[in-house]
Amino acid sequence: MTKSFVAETIQTTPSLVSTNDSTETTPDRESVKVLIYGSKRGVNNTILTLYKLGFAQVNEWSPLLPSSNPGEVMSILIRYISINIPGD
């Protein structure tokens, strides 16, 4: 099993978007999935860069998972966002 690179020294900040693990859907919320494919180094570097930009916490991403291409891994981030319903 591949180990995630979460650094012990990284301090977390509050997330602006709900990361509730619930798969329950409601009319005003939907899930959005963000996937990163590449080498282990590339995926880890991108996750850390997105963290530094305030996009997502490092621990919100899945552990590195093998992809269908040899030597390539992927990581998934699922966010639950509020959506506006037209006419409301």
Question: Could you characterize the architecture of this molecule?
Answer:
The chain is α+β, with helices and mostly antiparallel strands. The chain has a domain at 36-82. The protein is built from 1 helix and 3 strands. Strands 1-3-2 form a 3-stranded antiparallel sheet.
Short structural description:
This protein is an alpha+beta fold.
Main beta sheet, described? Answer: 3 strands, antiparallel
The percent range for strand residues is 25-35%
Order of helices and strands: EHEE
Indicate the low-confidence ranges by residue numbers: 1-21
Tally of extended strands?
3
Tell me, briefly, the overall form. Answer: elongated
CA distance, first residue to last residue: 47 Å
Query: What is the count of helical runs?
Result: 1
Strand order of the largest sheet: 1-3-2
Mean pLDDT: 78
Structural class designation: alpha+beta
Can you give the helix content as a percent range? 10-25%
What's the gyration radius in Å? 15 Å
Based on the model shown, name its key terms.
about 90 residues; alpha+beta; three-stranded antiparallel β-sheet; about 15% helix; about 25% strand; disordered N terminus
Give the topology, please.
Elements: E1 29-38, H1 40-52, E2 65-66, E3 73-82
Antiparallel strand pairs: 1-3, 2-3
